Every structure is written in C-alpha cells, then in structure tokens.
Amino acid sequence: MEYIDFSLTKEYIELIKLLKLLNLVESGAEAKIVVEEGLVECNKEIEYRKRRKLRVGDVVTFQNNLIKIN
Questions:
Q1: Has this prediction a pTM greater than 0.85?
Q2: In the structure, what pLDDT confidence band is assigned to residue 56 with cuts at 50, 70 and 90?
Q3: Are 34 and 62 in contact (CB under 8 A)?
Q4: Which of 16, 24, 26, 49 has the smallest C-beta neighbourhood within 10 Å, fewest atoms?
C-alpha cells in the first residue's frame, strides 16, 4: 500500500479531480469510470459519487493507494 498525503489549498476537491491530479488515472473519463464501477473507497466505504467533495480528514483508497486529505 502506498501512502499519499494530499494538502488542500481550497475548502475541498472533487473525487475525480483528485484521482486525475495525482495521476492515478489517465483522464477525467477514466476517473469517472473507476468511480462508477465502485473501485474507489472514501472513508472505508465504496464511493459512487464522481463529484464527492473531499475535505480535510477524508481518506481515499484506490488501487493500492491510500490518500489522506490534509
């Protein structure tokens, strides 16, 4: 498992934007697909909302990556 600390510069970041920004997917379209297919967890629950607003304290798990939002 790779641990990634992501520091917010705004109030929140949308889930698909985070995946793309961290280069965990190749495109926004791919980000939408992996979320729709239930491959992403947020705070230990499968997340199907593509535009889920992630805030400080949230933890995202995707493809052996654990991302903590700071």
A1: yes
A2: very high
A3: yes
A4: 26
CATH of segment(s) 2-69: 3.10.290.10
Q: Would you state the pLDDT for residue 19?
A: 98
DSSP string over 5-45: EE--SSS-EEHHHHHHHTTSSSSHHHHHHHHHTT--EETTE
Structure tokens at 59: 């933890």
Sequence ranges of the domains in the chain: 2-69
Euclidean distance between CA atoms 30 and 9, whole angstroms:
24
At 57, is the secondary structure helix, strand, or coil?
coil
**3: its two tokens:** 């641990």
Backbone φ, ψ for residue 10 (5° rounding): -125, -175
pLDDT in tens, 4-46: 999 999 999 999 999 999 999 999 999 999 999 999 999 999 9
